[in-house]
Amino acid sequence: MTMTTDMLAAGALLCLGVIALALLAERLARVTAYRAAGWRVRAMAFGGFCLIREGGKWSLKPGSLAAGKGVLSLSTAIPETPDITTQEDYEQARGVLVKANRLSPSAKLYREGDLMPAYVLYAMLSLQEDGALRREKNSFLRDKLAQALGELPPDKAGRHALEAFDLLLMEHMAHPDWPASPALERWLDHFAQDYQTLRRGKGAEIYPVLFLHVLYALKLRGDDRWKVMEAHVSTVLKVLPGGGVNAYYRLQALQMIYNEDHREALAKRENIRQCGAWRLYGLFGDAMDDEMRLNRR
Fold first, then answer.
1. Residue 2 in domain
2. Which letter does DSSP use for residue 181 in this model?
């Protein structure tokens, strides 16, 4: 019995060691690919801490990239990405992502189709030091993401496609002067009718969050279809995680749906808890820009 227990313990340690080496190899592959392309590293995760470059200097802050949502959940290293304004720029950047993720379980997604590379590249702009300005300048990349989204049927959308749609939808609400793409219009119309898919979705935060964002967008447009969705808001809020996330969306919903004025509370960065990884997103200056803009409407 003792030998069996010792052997099991040794086997467990060996498995943990193999997993640790695999994660280290994956991380080194990312950083090596970024550096080979001339991209500096913006942030890296080390256990429960995140090392971030700000103003040319490194600072260590609590927070793990592995605990992130959206683009943060896809990487243990965030690069300082270049502006992408042409197809040639995009192909070069996509090639860097393919090399950086060659050891990742999601490697295939970067090689097939444009959704994943365009989504990751565009979402990473918000994590740069001047993220809001960078996104405004990179309209080519935004159009590339919208085009990739438009090639997919919304009724068969996976998590990454839903997150890409949510990113574009949030931008549309936060920057009403930015033109809405045909793809955004088609996806919004689809989920305005098939909102039950979002209401019943399980296993990911994106479902209840996107339900609320679709409702907000319809109401801001004066589209009465939001009134049908409104009956399910209390149920959707219950699905959201604790840790302040549920309370944040409840307060935001009171303002966006029921016209209560909570702009003062919602304007404070420390009150913005848009997902379970809100502390991590708070480490990046412009990552909450769209939430803050939406809360001022």
1. no
2. P
Among 47-61, 120-134, 136-150, 210-224, which stretch is predicted with the lowest mean pLDDT? 47-61
d(CA 51, CA 31) in angstroms, rounded, equals 13
Would you say the C-alpha torsion 70, 74, 75, 81 has a positive or negative sign? negative
Q: Report the run of H or E that residue 10 belongs to, with start and end.
A: helix 2-36
Structure confidence at residue 45 (pLDDT): 74
The reply to whether 21 falls in a domain is no
| 3-class secondary-structure state, position 77 | strand
Residue 3 lies in a domain: no
User: Domain tally for the chain?
Assistant: 1
Q: Look at residue 37 and give its three-state secondary structure.
A: coil
Q: Which domain holds residue 248?
A: 38-178+199-295
* Average pLDDT, integer, range 61-86: 72
Q: What b-and-e string marks burial along 43-62, b requiring 16 or more CB atoms within 10 Å of the CB? A: bbbeeeebbbbeeeeeeeee
Amino acid at 232: H
> What crossing angle do the helices spanning 139-150 and 159-174 adopt, rounded to 10°?
130
Question: pLDDT at residue 74 above 60?
Answer: no
Supply the pLDDT for residue 258. 94
Cβ–Cβ < 8 Å for 286, 126: yes
Task: Give Cα 66 distance to the centre of its chain.
Answer: 13
Instruction: Kindly state whether residue 211 falls inside one of the protein's structural domains.
Output: yes
By residue count, the chain amounts to 297
pLDDT, position 8: 47
Could you tell me if 164 and 149 are in contact, meaning their C-beta atoms sit under 8 angstroms apart? yes
Query: Alpha carbon of 166 to those of 6, 25, 96, 172, 216: distances in Å?
Result: 49, 32, 25, 10, 12
pLDDT per residue as tens digits for the range 212-252: 999 999 999 999 999 999 999 999 999 998 889 999 999 99
41-46 and 77-79: which strand pairing? antiparallel
pTM attached to this predicted model: 0.87
